[in-house]
Design goal:
The complex is a heterodimer of chains A (256) and B (282). By secondary structure, chain A is an alpha/beta fold. Helix content of chain A is 29%, strand content 27%. In chain A, the strands form three sheets. Chain A has a six-stranded mixed β-sheet, with helices on both faces. In chain A, strands 2-1-4 form a three-stranded antiparallel β-sheet. In chain A, α3 (111-123) packs across α4 (139-152) and α4 packs parallel to α5 (169-184). The longest helix of chain A is centred in the C-terminal third of the chain and has 16 residues, at 169-184. The radius of gyration of chain A is 18 Å and the shape is globular. Chain B has helices at 7-32, 36-45, 47-56, 60-80, 86-105, 114-119, 127-146, 148-156, 168-209, 213-238, 242-260, 275-279. Classes of the chains: A alpha/beta (256), B mainly alpha (282). Chain A binds chain B through residues 58-60, 74-78, 81-90, 93-94, 97-98, 100-103, 105-106, 133-136, 146, 149, 153, 254, and chain B through 32, 146-147, 149-150, 152-153, 155-157, 159-160, 162-166, 210-213, 215-216, 264-271.
Chain lengths: 256, 282
């Protein structure tokens, strides 16, 4: 599978405000841009606007003001426990969903797309689990299948919703390696996460708490002041190394 | 079997087998979308439409369509009021519609017979009824075939579906429209109440037995057709009500599948959408 097509993948967001209705603005004043090859950690508390930003980029939310422009195909990689684990589809079936948008309703999925799906599963290290029911895979394996689906979509921009949540150590490393490869191919990755330490490893950090708190390279951006502004009361300061740690109030209810 | 020699029974048999297969296949998707309550609600809420159609001598199809649309609009409206909420909106609308339908049907000088609308009249199937049922079944079957991939994406991963080119809200609405068609097709034979048995029971059995979605749909269609066949034969041999026998046969087959089938896979993630949320595009 090759890197995404001719025009380089990019995301440009300019003064974006988005809301779920006229009553409440869920996210405002977001301005950032990311170009091919960059991985952006999107940090923030639950309800801070990570999901809202993703949905605005996907074109599923009306923008109240400002603009969000995406160059290249965009794919959403949800948390795997949000999908229906009792639905009888195999890993290969799920990867093939990446070809749905380009398959007419009266046609079978093209042979080329079938081989693309197999190659994608191979890339995420799950070639031999192609026939396994999605719900029977481990959390990390399911996450990799959903990334394979985004590869079949040939996405230049990937929005990943907490790809490391509920994932065992081995799978974490496997996913990290895949994301590094995707980045090297010139794709843009937006990674919603709770993990401040991990965010330090990506190219850029975007801090959201109802509005944009900061955007930039991790070293300059992840200051204690910014983290306090992002997480408010949820922050705990560790005096060793002056590093702050965000306390996760993990709620599994769906927060828009 | 000599019961097959009567034209009356032949028509009834063909009708119930076709309807069983259609409702079974449709039911698989309704169950996966967790829309059993919606299925029941919509089927019941179209009663006033059916009664009014019977009163003025219009085709039942037209009445059912009108009844469904009116009920859907009422549910969507009521659900928008946050003091009411989706579940109550469905409950109140359906009860109101059903009560209204029963009241209309029970006025003394009415040609429509409430019993037939509620419980069907399989043995009264005319050739025209049979043609209509087969035509509607064909439409539902074709639509399910054409919509297979969008349905799979909408059920499996509604959050990512839009980026896969699928709008889950529209898919669910389309499925509810197919449900309305199937109920309209089945109402003459099985009635507004008993049709639910053929939509829910074969699909529930198939979900226990089938390992792939395609297998589940095929099994549900087969179980639905078998329910129709067994129920009708039993009703003829034992002199029981035809529609009720078919419904009971479907339930018995489901119980066998649940008892003898493999254990169901791990419980599901995700949250079901309520009927009101779907109708109001929420």
């Amino acid at each position: 599978m090759s890197a995404p097509a001719a025009s380089p993948a990019a995301v440009e967001v300019q003064g974006l405000s988005a809301s779920y209705g006229p009553a409440a603005v869920a996210l405002r004043d977001v301005t950032f841009s990311a170009t091919g090859g960059q991985a952006v950690a999107v940090l923030g508390p639950n309800g801070g606007g990570k999901t809202t930003l993703f949905r605005a980029l996907l074109g599923e939310l009306p923008t109240a003001s400002g603009s969000a422009t995406v160059h290249g195909t965009i794919a959403y990689v949800p948390q795997t426990e949000r999908s229906r684990l009792d639905f009888p589809v195999s890993a290969l079936d799920v990867a093939l969903m990446g070809a749905y948008a380009r398959t007419s309703w009266y046609r079978r999925i093209a042979a080329r797309d079938r081989s693309l799906a197999r190659v994608a599963l191979e890339r995420v290290g799950l070639a031999e689990r192609a026939g396994t029911r999605f719900g029977a895979l481990s959390g990390g394996q399911r996450q990799r299948v959903l990334i394979a689906r985004a590869l079949v979509q040939d996405a230049g921009v990937l929005l990943l919703d907490e790809p490391f949540a509920g994932v065992d150590r081995t799978s974490q490393e496997a996913i990290m390696a895949i994301l590094d490869e995707l980045r090297a191919e010139g794709r843009v990755l937006l990674i919603a996460t709770h993990d401040v330490e991990q965010a330090r490893g990506w190219d850029r950090v975007l801090c959201l708490a109802g509005r944009q708190i900061a955007y930039g390279a991790p070293a300059e951006t992840l200051t204690n002041a910014v983290l306090e502004g992002t997480y408010g009361e949820e922050i705990v300061m560790l005096d060793c190394g002056h590093r702050a740690v965000a306390i996760q109030h993990h709620s599994h209810s769906h927060n828009h | 079997m000599d019961i097959l020699s009567s034209g009356l029974l032949q028509r009834a048999l063909l009708e119930v087998v076709v309807l069983g297969a259609t409702c079974g296949a449709l039911g698989v998707w309704l169950l996966h979308l967790r829309h059993t309550y919606a299925a029941e609600s919509l089927a019941h809420a179209m009663l006033p439409g059916l009664v009014i159609a019977a009163l003025v001598g219009a085709p039942l199809l037209l009445g059912a369509a009108g009844g469904v649309l009116a009920a859907a609009a009422l549910i969507a409206l009521a659900a928008r009021d946050t003091r009411v909420g989706p579940e109550i909106a469905v409950g109140v609308t359906v009860t109101t519609a059903f009560g209204l339908g029963a009241m209309l049907a029970l006025t003394p000088d009415v040609p429509a017979r409430l019993g037939e609308l509620l419980f069907g009249d399989l043995l009264g199937t005319t050739t025209a009824d049979l043609v209509a049922a087969c035509g509607l079944s064909a439409v539902v079957g074709l639509a399910l075939w054409a919509g297979h991939r969008p349905l799979a994406a909408a059920v499996f991963d509604p959050l990512a579906a839009p980026s896969l080119g699928v709008r889950p809200g529209r898919v669910e609405l389309a499925l509810l429209a197919l449900l309305a068609l199937a109920v309209v097709a089945a109402v003459q034979g099985l009635g507004n109440l008993l049709v639910l048995a053929l939509i829910v029971a074969p699909a529930a059995g198939a979900l226990r037995l089938g390992r792939t979605i395609g297998m589940q749909i095929a099994l549900a269609a087969a179980l639905g057709a078998l329910s129709g066949l067994l129920g009708l034969v039993a009703s003829a041999e034992l002199d029981l009500a035809a529609g009720a026998s078919v419904a009971l046969a479907a339930i018995v087959l489901w119980m066998l599948a649940a008892l003898l089938g493999p254990r169901p896979p791990s419980p599901a993630g995700g949250t079901p959408r309520s009927l009101a949320e779907t109708l109001s595009g929420g």
